[in-house]
Design brief:
With about 600 residues, this protein is mostly helical. It is built from 31 helices and 5 strands. Helix 4 (about 95-110) packs across helix 6, helix 8 packs parallel to helix 10 and helix 23 packs antiparallel against helix 24 (about 445-455). The longest helix is centred in the C-terminal third of the chain and has 17 residues, at about 565-580. This is PROP1-like PPR domain-containing protein.
Amino acid sequence: MLRVEAPAYCPIARPRWKLYACRNVLQETVVHGAEVKSYSRSERKNRKNEGAYIDKDGVARTFDRKKISRKRGGGMKGRGWKYGSGFVDGVFPVLSPMAQDILELVQKGTDVAKVWQSLDSIPHAHDLWDDIVNVAVQLRLNRQWEPIITVCEWILYRSSFRPDIICYNLLIDAYGRKRELSKAESIYMALLEAHCVPTEDTYALLLRAYCNAGKLHRAEGVISEMQENGIPPSATVYNAYLDGLLKTRCTEKAVEVYQRMKKERCRTNTETYTLMINVYGKANQPMSSLKVFNEMNAIGCKPNICTYTALVNAFAREGLCEKAEEVFEEMQQAGHEPDVYAYNALMEAYSRAGFPQGASEIFSLMEHMGCDPDRASYNILVDAYGRAGLHQEAEAVFQELKQVGMRPTMKSHMLLLSAHAKSGNVSRCEEVMAQLHKSGLRPDTFALNAMLNAYGRAGRLDDMERLAAAMEDGGAGAAPDIGTYNVLVNVYGRAGYLDRMEAAFRAAAARGLAADVVTWTSRIGAYARKKEYGRCLEVFEEMVDAGCYPDAGTAKVLLAACSDERQVQEVTAIVRSMHKDAKTLFTL
C-alpha cells in the first residue's frame, strides 16, 4: 500500500501520522510497542477494519473499509477520483517513489508497446494497484490524456488487475477530451460487459464528451438511457450536461436543459446556478444572469466566489463597469476574498468599456492586496490599452509580462498585434509575427486575422489578399473563419471595392461559414457610404431572412444611408418593429 511518511520532530513522545494517499485517509500509528500490545484481540481486529479521513470541512471521520468495499460501484480503489475535481475531499494523490518512477516513465515514453513492457516488468506487490491509480489521477490533474490512455489500457488489456469503475471513467474522460467518441463509447460498452456498474460520473463524462463534439442528440440519448434504467439524472449529471453546452456555446439547449431540471424537480445547487450565469453571460444577456443570481438567493442557495466571478464576467462582457463593481463589492461583503479570477473579470469590465486606466488601477490594487497577477491579467491589460489605441502602453505591458518570467502565449501576441494594427504600425505587426514564429508558436486564425486587419487598415491590399489566399489554401497553417471574411468584407467595403466585397461574402458562404451580424452590417455599410438606400434595404431583408438579428450598429448604418426625412422615418419604423416583434430566447 502506497504511503508517504512525514513524521514531524517533537520533543515529547506522541503518535505520528502517516498519509495514505490512495485511500484518502489519515491513520494514527502509535510507535510504542507497549501501547500496541495493550489492545485486546477484538480491539485490534476492529482497528484493522477501521479507516479515517478528513472531509471537506476539515473534520476527522471514520469508516469501515469492509462495508465500503461492498458498496455499489466498486471498492475503495475506485473511490479515489470524482468527476469535476480529480480528487476526493481535497486530498491530492501523493505519489510513492515507485509511483514517481512510473509517472516519469509514461510521461516520457512515446512508444506505447515499450511503456507496456516496462509496466509488465514491475514486480507485483500489494501496493502496485494504488501506485498505478494514483499515477493515472495525477496525469488527469495535469490534463495529459495520452499517458492516461496508455496506463488505463494497460490495466484493461494487458495487466492481471481487474479494472474497476475509476479505470473506465478515466478512459472515457480521456477519449472524450480528445473527441474520439467511438473509443469512448467502446469503453462504456466494455464497462457494461464487465458487469461494472456505471456511476453518475460515468454518465456525466459521456455527456460532456458528446457536447464537446457537438453530438447533442447522443447526449440526449444518455439522459434517456438513465431514465429507462430507472436512474433519475441528478444535479451532477445535469451540471455536466450544462457545462458541455456552455463550452460549445449551445445557449438555447442549455436553457432548455435548465428548465427541464426545474420541471423534473431536480435539486439544483450552487454549481448549477453558476453555470447558468455563465451561459447567459456568454450570450451577452447580463440581466438574465442577474435574474438567475437573484433566484438562487431567493431559495437560500448560497453563492460562492465562482458564482460572483461569473456574474462580474457577465457584466464585464458588456462593459458595464458600475454593475461589475457592485457585484465585486457584494462578493467582499459576503466574506469572499477576491482571487486573481475575480480581479481579472473586473479588469475586463474596464477594458471593454474603453477605460484602460481603470483596468490598470485594478491591476495595481490586485498587487497591493497580495494577489499575484497571472498571464491573463497581463493579456487583459494589453487588450485594454490596445482597444484605446495606446499601442506604446500595450507594448510596455507585453514587455513587462516577459520580464516577470512569464512566457507570452498565442493570445498575448494576438492582442499585441491588434493594438499595433489599430495604430497602423504594420512593420511592428510583422515583427510580432516573426517573434511568434521564433518562440515556436504556430499562428492561429485569430493572430492571422489581426495581421489581415493590419494590412487592410494600412491600405496594403495586395499583402492582405496574399495572406487570405494562403489561409484558404492551407499554407498559412490556420483555416479562415467568419472573422477572416469579416475583415475582408469590411476592408473592401470601406475602400469602395463592392465587387471584391461581394466575392468575399460569397466565398464565406461557399466554405459553409454563416454570416454573422458583423458580416451583414459591414456589407450594408459599404452601400450606405454610396448612399444606395434601396440596396441597403435589400441586404437588410436578406439578413433577416437568413435568421440574423440586427443590432444597434446595423440600425446606425441604415440611418447613414438615408438621404431625406422620409427615408429616416422609414428606417426608424423598421427598427422599432423589429424590436417590438423580437422574442427573447432567454426566458427563465
